[in-house]
Amino acid sequence: MEAVAVTIAVNAAKTVLERLLGMAENAVTKERALLRGVEGNVRFIRDELEMMRSFLKSSTAACPYAAAGGWCDGCGNCRRSAVRNTWARLLRGLAYDIEDCLLDADLVLEGGNLADRHRLAKRILGLRDRVEAHKERSQMYGVFLDGAHRPTPTEQQHLQHDDDDTRPLLSCEHNPHTDDEDDDGNDWWEVVIGRDDDKKALIKRVKKKNAGNNKVVSVRGMPGVGKTSLARMMYNDAKFIRRFDCRAWVTVPHHHTPPIGYFERRLREQLGVDDGRDVSAWLREKKCLVVVDDVSSPEEWQHIWQCLAAIGEDGRIVVTTRQKDLVRRCGCEYELKPLARKESLKLLFHKLVMILVSYFVFFVHFKVYKNELPNNTKGQANHILRRLGLPLGEYNGRGLPLAIVTTGGELISSKTSKEWMNLVNHLGSELNSDRDIIRAISSGYDGLPYHLKSCFLYMSIFPKNHVIRCTRLLRRWIAEGYIAKHDMAIEKVGRMYYNELINRCMIQPSKKARSSMAVEHCRVHGLVLHKVILPMSIVENQLFIMDNHCRDPQDDIRHLVVTRWKRHGHNIRKIDLTLVRSLTVFGECPLSLITPKLRLLRVLDLEDTIDLENDDLKDIGELPHLRYLGLRGTNISKLPSLKKLKCLEILDVQNTKLTQLPDGITSLEKLCGLTVGVNFVQDLVDNMAENNNAEKCSGNFLETLTDDRLPSLQVLGVVYIADGKVARKIGQLTSLRKLGVDLATSKGIGMELCHSIERLVQLERLEVRSKSLEFLKGIDRPPPKLVSLRLCGNLGKLPRWMSPLNDLAKVKLLRTQLEQYDIDVLGNLPNLKLLGLWEESFRDESMCFRGGNFQKLKVLYIEGLEKIETIRIEDGTLPMLEKLWVKKCLALSDSKEGLRGVQFLPSLNETVVTSCGEKPHLVVALRRKISSFAIRPKFITGKSIATWKQRMRNSFSRFITWNNTTTFFM
């Protein structure tokens, strides 16, 4: 019996083992098949992703509000496309998931282990099943491509071009409307047309004797009517501001809670309050004009009024607001009405002509201010204004400059009469509510080519009235994959996208770099942001904004914005961070926000974040897909290792406390932009305050550089070099296009740098700072493509290698101690367009611009030359000069000899002579010469109204410009 029992047990065990072996064999076979099918499935979902993108391009909804899940009045197009819009939204989410999977697939297939490949295989199979289910769903609910929105001819052209990487792109250059010295509050449609009477009435109202709270005048109006523009016109009126000793313009920030004392600090800076003086006492004693732009609540005004209550009897406060209940608290009210039909028509024509001039189109030849346009064009424009709510008869109060200028920007991109009328048909019948005004503005979005729509919606990340630096925006677009690759540099393509959005008035210019006539800062109008961009971006881009009033987070978040958040807030744990692609923080950075859960993150932008600590970044090296890391303006002093960030393209740690970069930087093969140290403006101010080099970032990380390291690096600066070995290593970065270095005063370093510069044949922009720059004369073969040169340090005479540089267009000099001979050398550069001469750059008492020189110079800036007494311009020189600035030259002669020869400048449109002391005779002589011009240039003179440090920052930030960037390394 025992033997039988043993036999039964053995047989049973064999049976179980055979079954287990069979199951294991099947599992291994399936696993092998699963892993073998990874690459094929990757190809399948990649092809599906391409088809999805093509469909999403063609199915762009004609009504953006319906696409965004917003309101709609039931138009036929929206009723027909409701199902398709929902289907497209689901498809867009699936496309996002496929893109994320493909990013991981690239990493896993390159070097992942078996477990990673297994997880990837299962993930791809799940996506494949979702693709098939989506196809079945489209058949079930009757979603067909033939019902999709048909693109306009313009869209078709761009869609075709998107498939052809060899196409040339149209370059759209912006034509600035204004050039105010202080740009705070500058609006994009700021033109004088139609607002002269309002300006006079407002000035009269402000001049009126009032007491107590009645010294406050509020400018109230609906969004887009031009409140800020009107206040700006008053603020810059030369005759009016002579009544005041000082003035200040403060825009109320809405992107984060202002820190304690913010408003008082802004007043102190702009009013020029002496150190140690109380702001309240200053307001009582001086005649002060204070403009407070965009007050949105009684609570905000109560806080602001505490700082302004002490203003004297002759002082005035002007407040712009859209809140009617706020007006009662602000004293006297001035209600700004929309434009009348005639002024609206002029504004529309003005917008058309201003842009058409840049395209050299025939409209420029007509006298637009007399409405003398061809009959058919004039009739269409009248029809458009009628659709904007402006009948040809009596004024009905609906002429909003914002809507009119936006429409003009869209019209200018339409090339045919048919396209004009297609736009008109989308405007709606009558603009009798904010909803209709928004529809008029959104028509500009409908006319955008597909590749610009993604860039435009991306603006929703930035808060209302937040000033956005152009290069910050462009590099984020690139990191997100919004800029298609072409034959030209990808940043130049991004600049074209940016310029086109400016010209179409989809985004508004803010600060202007006067040296390049380019718009280097922009912002989004609050009405456009909250009513047009945000609703669409929440759906299409899966954006979530986390603030102190935020709702429960949505399921899938691709773009996360943290604003008005307390550092120790706890609700951050409720948010699923696993799908987030971009993370942007305005204000305080929550604790434990940056975690390994952000594994799909491409963009981490913490610029100017408050109270950011080194420990907050401890997990940053665990973000494998990170492409953009922006830490500019924070207090960090140390970074963790970044060697795992193989995808990193941009590292911006400028104006931080970082003095050493972490190990592993040189192993980042895709890194193309590295900006460190301090920018030129900050460095200049710090040096004058006798600060040390504590904030200069060492270039010692280059010591380990080999020939195969940092192959993609194109931008480097400003690095502090105190070792000849490091200076020699720079010569190995042969892809560099922009280089900025600050050299220690040590023998041998200068010559090593010269040898390195000679090897950088692609270099276009060079900045060198040192106490002495004599070593630069040792360069024998300068970079042949050099277009911009900035030098800071004692030079004595210009190096001889500068003369043959035919492409050199911009030269900025500081402390170079040049003589008249060097000015003549600069005058012979055939393509020089900008020349900036700052403190101690010229040591003679007289400067002469000789006849025949500077044939292409457009901007001449002279500041802080303490010895200069006379500036003479001879006939035949500077024929193309548009802007002439002379500032802080206290020794300048108070006679016509101080600045002689401006009558020989036929292209001059602006002359600035400020902060040179009392020069009444010189001012009279200049005004007499300028009045003889056929088209009278703008002439700005007068006493300074800001602190010295603020003036330095304002003036230099507009002129230290390298290839359309306000500072060299943006």
UniProtKB/TrEMBL annotation:
<dbReference type="GO" id="GO:0042742">
    <property type="term" value="P:defense response to bacterium"/>
</dbReference>
<keyword id="KW-0175">Coiled coil</keyword>
<feature type="compositionally biased region" description="Basic and acidic residues">
    <location>
        <begin position="158"/>
        <end position="167"/>
    </location>
</feature>
<dbReference type="GO" id="GO:0043531">
    <property type="term" value="F:ADP binding"/>
</dbReference>
<dbReference type="Pfam" id="PF18052">
    <property type="entry name" value="Rx_N"/>
</dbReference>
<dbReference type="GO" id="GO:0098542">
    <property type="term" value="P:defense response to other organism"/>
</dbReference>
<dbReference type="InterPro" id="IPR055414">
    <property type="entry name" value="LRR_R13L4/SHOC2-like"/>
</dbReference>
<dbReference type="GO" id="GO:0009626">
    <property type="term" value="P:plant-type hypersensitive response"/>
</dbReference>
<dbReference type="InterPro" id="IPR032675">
    <property type="entry name" value="LRR_dom_sf"/>
</dbReference>
<dbReference type="InterPro" id="IPR002182">
    <property type="entry name" value="NB-ARC"/>
</dbReference>
<dbReference type="InterPro" id="IPR058922">
    <property type="entry name" value="WHD_DRP"/>
</dbReference>
<feature type="domain" description="Disease resistance N-terminal">
    <location>
        <begin position="16"/>
        <end position="104"/>
    </location>
</feature>
<comment type="similarity">
    <text>Belongs to the disease resistance NB-LRR family.</text>
</comment>
<keyword id="KW-0677">Repeat</keyword>
<dbReference type="InterPro" id="IPR001611">
    <property type="entry name" value="Leu-rich_rpt"/>
</dbReference>
<keyword id="KW-0547">Nucleotide-binding</keyword>
<feature type="domain" description="NB-ARC">
    <location>
        <begin position="197"/>
        <end position="351"/>
    </location>
</feature>
<dbReference type="Pfam" id="PF23559">
    <property type="entry name" value="WHD_DRP"/>
</dbReference>
<protein>
    <recommendedName>
        <fullName>NB-ARC domain-containing protein</fullName>
    </recommendedName>
</protein>
<dbReference type="InterPro" id="IPR041118">
    <property type="entry name" value="Rx_N"/>
</dbReference>
<dbReference type="Pfam" id="PF00931">
    <property type="entry name" value="NB-ARC"/>
</dbReference>
<feature type="domain" description="Disease resistance R13L4/SHOC-2-like LRR">
    <location>
        <begin position="580"/>
        <end position="916"/>
    </location>
</feature>
<dbReference type="InterPro" id="IPR044974">
    <property type="entry name" value="Disease_R_plants"/>
</dbReference>
<dbReference type="GO" id="GO:0002758">
    <property type="term" value="P:innate immune response-activating signaling pathway"/>
</dbReference>
<dbReference type="InterPro" id="IPR027417">
    <property type="entry name" value="P-loop_NTPase"/>
</dbReference>
<keyword id="KW-0433">Leucine-rich repeat</keyword>
<feature type="domain" description="Disease resistance protein winged helix">
    <location>
        <begin position="461"/>
        <end position="528"/>
    </location>
</feature>
<dbReference type="Pfam" id="PF23598">
    <property type="entry name" value="LRR_14"/>
</dbReference>
<dbReference type="InterPro" id="IPR036388">
    <property type="entry name" value="WH-like_DNA-bd_sf"/>
</dbReference>
<keyword id="KW-0611">Plant defense</keyword>
<feature type="region of interest" description="Disordered">
    <location>
        <begin position="149"/>
        <end position="184"/>
    </location>
</feature>
